[in-house]
């Protein structure tokens, strides 16, 4: 089972996250998501546990607990849906209004 873990302390290491969940059973992987530019933690991550029963016990046992001064959120990760078109950035295009590109008069 893939587990989402939110509100993580920004200085938490992946090994510490893995150790925390190993109290409930085998952990396949533990990953803290980081900012691509700065390399700093974004404050959330994912833990993969092969045994669904142990994973559910970890969710129930850790959700809402204090970890280094922060109350963490732990729940089953939902499959990422296709986000389709991305918003923001430098996309430009006709959907923003105005006459960008062709169609000039």
Question: In terms of topology, how is this protein built?
Answer:
Elements (H helix, E strand, L loop, with lengths): L1 E5 L7 H9 L6 E6 L6 E8 L3 H11 L3 E2 L2 E2 L1 E4 L29
Antiparallel strand pairs: 1-3, 1-6, 2-3, 4-5
3D structure, described in words:
With 105 residues, this protein is α+β, with helices and mostly antiparallel strands. It has helices at residues 14-22, 52-62; strands spanning 2-6, 29-34, 41-48, 66-67, 70-71, 73-76. The protein has a single domain (2-76), classed as RRM (RNA recognition motif) domain (Alpha-Beta Plaits), CATH 3.30.70.330. A hairpin with a 6-residue loop joins β2 (29-34) and β3 (41-48). The protein has a four-stranded antiparallel β-sheet, covered by helices on one side. A two-stranded antiparallel sheet has the order 4-5. The model has no long low-confidence stretch (mean pLDDT 87). It is globular.
Main attributes of the structure:
alpha+beta, 105 residues, single chain, Alpha-Beta Plaits, 2 helices
Brief digest:
With 105 residues, the chain is an alpha+beta fold. The chain is 19% helix and 26% strand. The protein has two helices and six strands, in the order E-H-E-E-H-E-E-E.
Using the CA coordinates, give the radius of gyration: 20 Å
Helix residue percentage: 10-25%
CATH superfamily: RRM (RNA recognition motif) domain
Strand order of the largest sheet: 2-3-1-6
CATH architecture: 2-Layer Sandwich
The ordered H/E elements are: EHEEHEEE
Distance between the termini: 57 Å
What is the residue-averaged pLDDT?
87
């Amino acid at each position: 089972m893939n587990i989402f873990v939110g509100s993580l302390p920004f200085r938490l290491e992946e090994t510490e996250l893995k150790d925390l969940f190993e109290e409930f059973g085998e952990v396949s992987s533990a990953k803290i998501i980081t900012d691509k530019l700065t390399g700093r933690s974004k404050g959330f991550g994912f833990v993969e546990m092969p045994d669904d029963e142990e994973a559910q016990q970890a969710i129930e046992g850790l959700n809402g607990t204090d970890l280094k001064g922060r109350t963490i959120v732990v729940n089953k990760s939902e499959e990422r849906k296709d986000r389709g078109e991305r918003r923001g950035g430098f996309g430009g295009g006709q959907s923003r209004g105005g006459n960008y590109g062709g169609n000039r008069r």
